[in-house]
Specification:
heterotrimer, A alpha+beta, B alpha+beta, C alpha+beta, B: alpha+beta, Ubiquitin-like (UB roll), DNA polymerase, domain 1, five-stranded mixed beta sheet, C: alpha+beta, Aldehyde Oxidoreductase, domain 4, seven-stranded mixed beta sheet, 31 strands
Amino acid sequence: MKPAPFDHVAPATLEEALALLVEHGENAKVLAGGQSLVPVMALRLATPAWLIDLNRIASLAGIRQLDTGELAIGALTRHAAVERSELVARANPLLASAMPWVAHTAIRNRGTVGGSLVHADPAAELPAVCLACDATLVAQSVRGRRAIAAAAFFRGMFETALGADELLVEIRFPAWPDGRRHGFIEIARRHGDFAICGIAATVERDRAGRVGDARVVAFGVVDRPVRLAAVERALAGTDGGEDALRSAAGAAADGLTPRADHHASAEYRSELLPVLARRALAQALTPRRR
Amino acid sequence: MPEPREIELTINGERRAGRCEPRTTLVDFLRETCALTGTHVGCEHGVCGACTVLLDGAPVRSCLMFAVQAAGARLTTVEGLAPPGEMNDLQRAFQEHHALQCGFCTPGILTTMTALLADNPTPTREDVRRALSGNICRCTGYEPIVQAVLDCARGRAGRAG
Amino acid sequence: MNAPDRAVDRATHVGTPTVRGEDQRFLTGAARFTDDVRFERMVHAAVLRSPHANARIRGFDAAAAAALPGVLLVATAADLGEVPVIPLRLAPLPGLDRFVQRAIAVDRVRYVGEPVALIVAESRYIAEDALDLIVVDYEALDPVTNIAQALAGTALVHEAVGTNVGSHYHVARGDPAGGFARAEYTRKERFRCHRHTAAPMETRGLVAEYDGAAMRVWGATKVPFFNRRLLAKMLDLPETAIEMIETDIGGGFGVRGEFYPEDYLVPWAAMRLRRPVKWIEDRREHLMATNHARETECELEIGMKRDGTIVGLRATVWADLGAYTRTGGGVAIARVPQFLPGPYRIPDYACEVFALHSNKTPVGTYRGPGRYEANFFRERLLDLAAADLGLDPAALREKNLVSAQEIPYDIGTLVPFEGPNAYEGGDFHSAYRQALAAIGHGSLPAKGAVIDGRLHGVGLACFTESSGAGPSESARIVARPDGRYEVYVGVTTMGQGHETVFAQIAADELGLPVAAFQVFHGSTSHVDEGWGTYHSRAIVVGGSAVKLAGAAMRDKLIELAARRSGLPAAELRVGAGAVLRESDASTVLDVAELARAAAEGDAEAREATHVKARFDIKMRPYSYGTHVAHVAVDPETAQVEVLAYVALEDVGRVINPLLAKGQAVGGAVQGIGATFLDELLYDEAGQLVSGTFADYLVPTSTEAPPIQAIFLEEAPSASNPLGAKGAGEGAIVATGAAVANAVADALAPLGVKITALPLSLNNLAASIRAARRRA
């Protein structure tokens, strides 16, 4: 299992990287953390002539909070840095709670946030978190920069809205309102494996304690992360109690045609959806023990 | 065929240089070019953890990096955990607890656990199991490894206290 | 020279938890596995493997591969001339020899992964580049991918043989029809055990070097003497011209070290090229090329009295052996009927066996071959019967276990190629009760008791286990002038710790510390003959040979000292590297000095310092035990947590409790993992779906349950001077059974029926769904 021959180029600046992307086009793959790309190269399922290695572009990594309260994460930021970041824990607790579910320590030490999003594995955690948070994905090419809403970014299995000449450079998470709560749960064959089914959820309550804005995202189920609109609608305006959760989560599989693979049938995924939706929402809505 | 590259890096505190193709994985570079065969190849697709080395102190899969990416880096392999011919307290704890049988996964587990203890000197049993979950062992059933790591941590805490 | 101050090491090493001397090299990166063997001018092999489950090869175009710079050899069957056939090593079930595999595919491929061409190049990278350039013209044929298709025979794996039935036979004991005639209750059920394999951490690998006269092969393990004999014949070399050398081995578990196609191809290439050739299997190859195991279906019927007394058992067993019969391919299927009756009093029993071929990877032995499967079938049926009859599963077992008074218990002739067998000794009830006590059986939540939304269940499984396969094993001990002792053995080691264990055994015989011994294993040059490491025989048979060699050296030393000193032998003993006078511990004969004399040509000294022994085992040791599992099942997600697990086995004599426990905990985790995770899945086209470690799932630290491993020494085996029985496989053999029974117990209130493994999330969810639909 040795990769086919390729040439390697590691530009020092984003501008050089973007120019190389134009120059090599379809013959090139972008190497960030490599934790998904290198295995497929070892299996010779990918045989690029060029690898454009982003790892020397220091400006692409980093976590900061903008004046707007947004959390901005550079595409080359390693999972481990997000996992350990106190800023992330404060500014987006959902993202923080999803990180330990991403593979294993050694993978998180190399794997990057941008790499995971661009790879667009439908069973991955981070795309679901981005969708739940309405994150903006910032793409750049020699043509310029553009912002893509998470809801528009994930187009299908391993498919994104990113153009061939574009790089994902930054992910922006809107400010996390006071009082927003979250839940995150997934089921995989083993801890660290890709999810068979998972739920990322955020819930806000109004002053009367009624559920206001709720976002419930399922991943691992269809070809991309998906908002469970029926659940969100059913939950809004309720007291968020156990009966309300059970009733709302019952709609989780509505309108979805889950995929089937040798780890899980479509029926099993359909059965997990309401169960995990209920449990994730319960995490979000159950008063935390102090 | 792309030109071979000259790379320089620090392995176990020693400056090393070598030539490799761009496609040479870091683990093959360590084993073939540097003759450091303590790091093992178990799956070559990033699942088993046998090839885990410390890159600037953090455990990484050396089968999922190309050697050219490690130019200028500081690596630690199993050979660098203790002076030649000696074992450190973690290695001795593995022996005491029979935390290895065939020993093939052991180097990757030692590097992973070395980083865990550097990061979290007083891990719980659950911390160790989580940190270990990316390293497959087919012989031990894992519990002796967990016990060895906890024992080593207790020993270090005792000496520090 | 007197040295009365030298401490005599009187400690008994056998039975103490000695830490392993071999550990340091593994812990410091200094071990030498096959891939660590390297030579000047060494070149690298890669194997082109069939992408089809069943196809005719119409032709090859290897010109581009051969022309690639760095490629030294491209070989297909045509280049090999007469392609040798790999014969059976064990378990010659009638008919299987018609289905043996050639070292490379000739005109036809029969499974995905079958070798069709060999490439040798300056690097493995280039060799793999060349693989991509070989064009093979295949004519794809309909594959046989399951037991039903194999039986139907509409497609044939081997047309020339005319059937997919590799072997078909009956075994019985007592009067099966008569037994069932007395039955007041019968229950018949069909069970299935899934295809999986050992997946050791080190894949297979070989390095072969030929200098024009002698062939050396690194990477041999398990049965190096047998493989040497075979290779010699195939290469037309004298056996003495071949040395098989064992390196450190990254786990065997039965699958590694049999004679595979590459075991011919790589030495052949080394001979052809006159350069050292290395081949290291990659993980993808491993999962499609190394022996698979365990895929078996069983229709099992039990006859009982209303009170739960078993009066008869009959079965039909179908095993999928894959495309060819491999060296040990008949073992697992033959062991299923042997172990189906288990430790129970079942005088009347019959089994019909079908060993079938399909277009899948051939099977071989994997830790506890046949036992894991048979125990699952029987123990599951016992619980189903207990439920029907309203009996407690524990009481049912207690009632039917063979009692101590009935031992030795004749189990009849249940294996066609073996004679009658008997359970040799012990108290099954004692082991059973201690296992139940250890887990707190009776006080655990069970039968679907709900705690925090999860259903709890407890499952039992009793078993017997054979070990110590014959015929023999040899050992040689040499005393060195520097006071050290070398022990040479014919068995091999794959991580079990035999270097330490054999040193413990020898140390006891010669009154020395363990550190005085260095153990050499795994080269065909160490002893005249060895049989190898399988069937938990290394310690039972090989350790006994070491014990005999140590005792023989002790006797010879005393005899020589008596002769030279004139003292009566009865007044002498051996210890501290000398023959000592019993009365005052004064040295009569210094062994190191004697070794020096031997080196200088003293024949008498040589005879006493170079001692060989051979141990022939005449009967098979049977261990026995009980596993108990306590699980909690989430009925909404099908997730199972194994909360507690007891694996208890009477192994006669524990040589090293630390290492024995390691075998048990590791074996139990491997088996429990396989019960939930490991599965070699094929699609309808015969493609292996779970062909990487991302899809073939083995347990990690977060899945491994806590294991309580208990060894009893109540019934030392009479078969060998150590009293030992194998301890390497008993912890895996009842895992599928105990876990499945526990899960079934937990889900009993839902009406879930479990008759198949694995208990994957998907399968268990389907069972729960089916039960809900019925309800």
